[in-house]
Amino acid sequence: MIEQLTLWGALLVYVAAGVVAIIGAVFQQDRARWILPLLLLGLTLHAMTIGLRWGRLGHGPFVTMFEILSSNLWSLMTAFVIAYWRIPSIRPIAAVVMPLLFILMGWLILSHPGESPLPATFRTIWLYIHVGLGKVFLGATLVAVGVSGVILLRRWQWTGRLFRDLPDDRRLDALALRLMALGLVFDSLMLITGAIWAQDAWGRYWAWDPLETWAFLTWLLVALALHLRLAIRVSPRGFAWMVMVVFVVAFLTFFGVPFVSQTPHQGVV
Amino acid sequence: MIDWLAPLASLRLTAVALALLGLAAVPAIVRGQADPLHLAIALGLLELNLLAAIITNKSFRRQSALLAFHLALAVLVALVAIGRLTFLTGYTEIVEGASYEKLLEVRAGPLQTGRAEGLRFASERVRITYHPGPVRDATRVIVRYWGADGRPVDEEIGDHHPLVLDGFRIYATFNKGFSPILSWWPDNGGKPIRGSVNLPRYPGEQDAQWREWVIPGAGISVFTGLRIEGEVLDPQRRSLLRPPEQSRLVVRHGDSRHELRRGEHLQLPGGVLVFDDLRMWMGFQITNDWTTPWVLAAALAAVASLALHLWARYAHSPWMD
């Protein structure tokens, strides 16, 4: 019961923060003094939810769709809060990022909160390392998506005016590049630690199972986007589109493939 | 030399090679396996591009971390290719109390020289626990091998813990099941023959516990099946997967059908079939790939040098100026 209360509390606080951010963008008002505390409150309540469930089940949020959505929502929000806190000039991107996280929240609410035991192959330190690195990658990509979203929305006058106080496209593009480069490092480490875990659990470090293949394609897209950015000097808008594609593929990899595929990554066979 | 290499070092070619690599990987989503030829073409192009870039790109000489990253990538690609030429992945099934005989399935690179047939190990005991559901929990298998001094050594393997023997890694798999142990006593007074029938995996194929068995040396074919009385795995409680005490071996020969309990026998044309025991069989994966630790080292070196390069490039400038 307490878990449900803290989770709903967290979600309501997140939504409040998101609404304030969107209103702030529409009316060109700096609402950071409301948004940041709300986000921190939401993160605290959400962390309590995850912690309570962890204590009750004896294992972390790694198995069911509900758990994975919840933990990734928390980590994505954490990544965004860090960016929000440390880079004040891009705070209005909350109006882009929070609606994306609303989608995750809606999905979370619709997911069954049922329990599942932790598969035997998940009982390893590599689970925490692999998942943690993946969260950093996805978090960096989310912030890059927020920045890239602004670049793309500036194309139209009625949305562009929402973000006119943000740095120009060139500087936003440079930030997006930096975030994607950071993402590439963590995505690479995630793949490597995943391979170590697979070798440990299944006797082979790579077998082209659907999740491995999708993760590899995501990595290739990041590498390709960065190379194209360097090679043919794509415009900020062109790179912004590439960031969007990377995020969509990464999203499908993290939240789609593990639950569609029947292969060992499911873990409970 | 550097002039003709310059086009091969192009960043545009890198983008093309990466895109080709992605296209080569896409079929794996559906088929579970990427086409080795397509992968080889894409990786080969990438390797050429990498090496050409390393040789011709002057900026690498000013940015040693970036050079190290690309060198590590080139080594990684080469090692993966060598690994595909020399790897071995095999599968076998061993009944409790029996020794490894041969691989039932093998995939190996053309230059694989390992002798998996020479491995000496046995499966002593299989213990697999299940959560309510049933949902598989821990797998523990006691395997026996013989040390350099010839003494037997028992080791427990299971999840995350293979047996490493003579350069091969032996893993317990998800595949396991029941195995009736049978003996055939020929009517002509010949030597009795002992054998086992690995029934389909349990609980994955629990409703299909049948298998044909051709009695060795007798040329008689029988269908053997297991009729399990009661539950093997309690869906409401934690359980241990072990051969069910209450079970009967169903034997079909021609139009006749018989049920035997442990220790009972059946007269068939040419001899007597005895149902001696019911044990577990375990599937083992046996692998050999000497490049694995080197691939890991190269991958880590690549990431470390990339991180170092990015650190040098960005650490002293603000995230947003």
Topology:
The complex is a heterodimer of chains A (269) and B (321).
Chain A (H helix, E strand, L loop, with lengths): L1 H25 L5 H26 L7 H22 L7 H17 L14 H29 L3 H4 L8 H34 L7 H22 L4 H20 L1 H4 L9
Helix pairs in contact in A: 1-2, 1-4, 2-3, 3-4, 3-5, 4-5, 5-7, 5-9, 7-8, 7-9, 8-9
Chain B lengths: L1 H4 L5 H15 L1 H5 L4 H21 L2 H4 L1 H23 L1 E8 L2 E2 L5 E4 L12 E11 L3 E12 L5 E7 L4 E3 L2 E19 L6 E4 L13 E6 L4 E9 L10 E3 L5 E7 L2 E5 L4 E4 L2 E18 L3 H23 L7
| Quaternary state of the chains | heterodimer
Biggest beta-sheet profile of chain A: none
Count all strands of chain B and give the number: 16
Low-confidence stretches of chain A: none
Mean pLDDT of chain A: 92
Task: Figure out the total of helices of chain A.
Answer: 10
Strand content of chain B: 35-45%
Strand content of chain A: under 5%
Report how far apart the termini of chain B are: 43 Å
Average residue pLDDT of chain B: 91
Summarize the structure.
The complex is a heterodimer of chains A (269) and B (321). Chain A is an all-alpha fold and 269 residues long. Chain A is built from ten helices and no strands.
Describe this structure in words.
The complex is a heterodimer of chains A (269) and B (321). Chain A is flat. With 269 residues, chain A is mainly alpha-helical. In chain A, α7 (169-202) packs antiparallel against α8. Helices cover 75% and strands 0% of the residues of chain A. Chain A has helices spanning 2-26, 32-57, 65-86, 94-110, 125-153, 157-160, 169-202, 210-231, 236-255, 257-260. In chain B, α4 (36-56) runs antiparallel to α6. With 321 residues, chain B is of the alpha+beta class. In chain B, the strands form 3 sheets. In chain B, strands 1, 3, 7, 8, 9, 15 and 16 form a 7-stranded antiparallel beta sheet that branches. Chain B is 30% helix and 38% strand.
